[in-house]
Each structure stands twice: as structure tokens, then as C-alpha cells.
Amino acid sequence: MTNNTLHNLLNAFAQGQTAFDNVLIKNANLQAQLLPFVSLRKACMPGANFRHAVLPGANFEGAIFRGSNFEHANLLAANLAWANLAQSDLGHTLLASANLVGINLANANLVGASMPGADLTSANLRNANLTGVNLKGANLSKANLFGARIDAKALSEAILEFTVMPNGECVTHPREQHPTMPNLANVMTYTRLAVALEPHRGIQPASSAPASSQANTQATAANPRQESVSSASSEAQQASKHIWFQFTENRADLDLTVTTAQKL
């Protein structure tokens, strides 16, 4: 597609036409264009510039926008299911309630993106930068976050079901509940396949500790010479208010369940 044809496309849109499916154009400059509900299904537009474009309700299903710029674009409730936006810039992009099922966002920049309520089922987010992203109520079921940069707080507000975490673990929890911060902090630092516990399981009171730690405390108290040291240590532990998290790993291949305790 030539620049002249792109100009014709914009003119056609201004006259009421919204469907431009299967178009082919490279490095299209659509910066700051007002294109609500435009349809570019299965379009091939690598390297396109949609920076600051207003695209609410747009239909980009199956489109190829690899290496494109959507920075600060408005894609509210847009359909990007199975679209290819690998290596694209979506920094501070509005994607609230967007359909992102199966989207390819590998190595993409999503710093500060707003995605509450978005459906990211089966999305490819490998090595993506999701720093500061808003995922409140977003569905990340079966999504691949391997190598992605994201914090536990953002994920604690999303739905995780058979989701591949940044460290390669497969995590799930009941759909009706959100994972807790301790759960996510734990599974994001472990390096083995695991299942995160539900919010109401595995969390002991702040004063609790594994049996081995309790035994050490009792042994110390039994020694008069170490009684004062033990008392000071107990006060320090109480002040730190560490949470002991009991973590269970189900290994079907070994036919056993491994339970460990981790201080967060």
C-alpha cells in the first residue's frame, strides 16, 4: 500500500467507512489519528506508528503490527485477539476491557500500560516489560510470562490459572479468588514447577514459625546462659513481623507432596 493509498484510506474513514480488513502497509504513520471502531482485521502493518492514536472499539483481530508504536494510544475495549505485536511499544497505552486473547506481546514494552479487565488468556508475554502495569481484574489464564518484568502487586490483582510465571513456574488458584502477595512473592522466587496455594491456606500467624525454628527456640530457652539472648531474639522477631509461608508442591511424577516453609 502506498502513502497515497493510506491517504485514501483516511479519507474513506472520514466519509464513514470503517472496515479496511486485510490491508498491507509497512511503516504507516497514523500518529494521533482519531479512528474509533476502525476494523483492520488480519491487516499486515509492521512498524506502524499509532502513537497517541484514539482507537476505542477498534478491531485488530489477527493483525500483524510487529515492531509498531502504540505508545499512549487509546485502545479501550479494542479487539486484538491473536494479533502480533511482538517487539512493539505499548508504553502507557490504555487497554482497559480489551480482548487480548492469544496476542503476541513477546519482548514488547508495556511500561505503565492500563489493562484493567482485559482478557489476556493464552497471551504470549515472554520477556515483556510490564513495569507499573495495571492488571486489576485482568485474565491471565494460560498466559506465558516467562522472563517478563513484572511485580507481585500487579499480578495479585489478576486472574491466574495455569499461568507461566516469569521464572517458568506454572501457577494457578481458584478463579473466584485473587492470589495473595505472600503467595506470589514465593512462587516468583522459586525455580521449580509449583502450584500456588489459595489465599486462606498455608499462611500462619506472624508469630508462627516452622517446627525446626520452634525447637531451636526451646533449646535456647533451656540453657540459662542463653536465656537473655533468646529473649532478645524473640523480641526482634516479633518486631520484624515476618510471615512464615507454608508452600506445598505437588509432584505427580514422584507421587509425593513437598511442603516447605519460607520466611518472607
From TrEMBL:
- Point to the regions of Low complexity compositional bias: 204-235
* Region listing for Disordered, in residue ranges: 203-235
Domain of life the protein comes from: Bacteria
Q: Any idea what this protein is called?
A: Pentapeptide repeat-containing protein
